[in-house]
Automatic annotation (TrEMBL):
Acts as an acyl-protein thioesterase that hydrolyzes fatty acids from acylated residues in proteins. Regulates the mitochondrial S-depalmitoylation of the nucleophilic active site residue of peroxiredoxin-5/PRDX5, a key antioxidant protein, therefore modulating mitochondrial antioxidant ability. Also catalyzes the deglucuronidation of mycophenolic acid acyl-glucuronide, an active metabolite of the immunosuppressant drug mycophenolate. Its EC number is 3.1.1.93, 3.1.2.22. It is an enzyme of class 3 (hydrolase). This is Palmitoyl-protein thioesterase ABHD10, mitochondrial. Signal peptide: none annotated. InterPro entries: AB_hydrolase_1 (IPR000073), AB_hydrolase_fold (IPR029058), ABHD10_acyl-thioesterase (IPR052382). Residues 51-233 form the AB hydrolase-1 domain. The lineage of its organism: Bacteria, Pseudomonadati, Pseudomonadota, Alphaproteobacteria, Maricaulales. Pfam families: Abhydrolase_6. It catalyses: mycophenolic acid O-acyl-beta-D-glucuronide + H2O = mycophenolate + D-glucuronate + H(+); S-hexadecanoyl-L-cysteinyl-[protein] + H2O = L-cysteinyl-[protein] + hexadecanoate + H(+). One of its GO terms (molecular function) is hydrolase activity. Keywords: Hydrolase, Transit peptide.
Length: 250
């Protein structure tokens, strides 16, 4: 069963946390930052939690506002809110350095969190990261009818791989437009490991590759995974993620 972190506006964030122990008890806490409409019970999140616990690494996975077992309606969420949720988890559940592991939308949220508080971020592992996806991937592919629907109805619905469709609210699109980071230097100085599926049809590798030019960090690696899709959840993919985390833990 998860624990719950109450926020200042009366909402709560569901999370599961295990503390570090043994030789790695003081290593940076690993925080899983999931993707859009995913939750902390997803395959990569639970696999990495079990993997970290077996090695004595502190690990936290949680549900954003409007996701999973946390409170709030998904349609009211924004990138600002979801990035702030990562900050709340970091600031209230940890005291030392952290490594943020961001998947898809969570990669963007993790980057925004690292920009806001660079000293606490010891490293970033970004899996098929989708910075600026609302404007550069979603709205960029909309028809004129969808753009009009956003203006008239305040929301556009699109199919998702979940029980409910994606609901792109006007607030999410406008907030995402204001929080874009790919068109300027990204002031993140910690080591960054990017894993990108070559066959990803949700976030094309040509999109995430732009991070290489924009990140100011001097320690950035970009791994293009042959045959990898958007989930990157094959056994070989999971090994790559584990290796990326370990490369930041020396």
């Amino acid at each position: 069963m998860p624990d719950f972190l109450k926020t200042s506006d009366g909402h709560y964030i569901a999370y599961e946390k295990t503390d570090g122990h043994g030789a790695l008890a003081d290593a940076p806490t690993l925080i899983w930052c999931g993707g859009l409409k995913s939750d902390m019970e997803g395959g990569k999140a639970t696999h990495l939690h079990t993997w970290a616990q077996a090695r004595g690494r502190a690990f936290i996975r949680f549900d954003y506002f409007g996701h999973g077992q946390s409170s709030g309606d998904f349609i009211d969420g924004t990138m600002t809110r979801w990035a702030a949720d990562i900050g709340r988890v970091r600031d209230r559940l940890t005291t030392g350095p952290v490594i943020l592991i961001g998947s898809s939308m969570g990669g963007w949220a993790a980057l925004l969190t690292a920009i806001a508080n660079t000293p606490r971020t010891a490293g970033l592992v970004l899996i098929n990261p989708a910075p600026d996806f609302t404007e550069k991937l979603t709205v960029a592919g909309w028809s004129e009818a969808q753009i009009k629907a956003l203006e008239n109805d305040g929301v556009v619905y699109e199919p998702s791989g979940y029980d409910e469709p994606y609901a792109y609210s006007k607030a999410l699109i406008e907030d995402g437009r204001a929080r874009q980071i790919l068109d300027m230097p990204i002031p993140v100085t910690c080591p960054v490991r990017i894993l990108q599926g070559y066959e990803d049809t949700v976030v094309p590798w040509t999109h995430s590759k732009r991070l290489i030019d924009m990140l100011t960090s001097k320690d950035v690696t970009y791994t293009l995974v042959a045959g990898g899709d958007h989930s990157l959840s094959r056994e070989s993919d999971l090994r790559l993620i584990e290796t990326a985390i370990e490369s930041l833990s020396v």
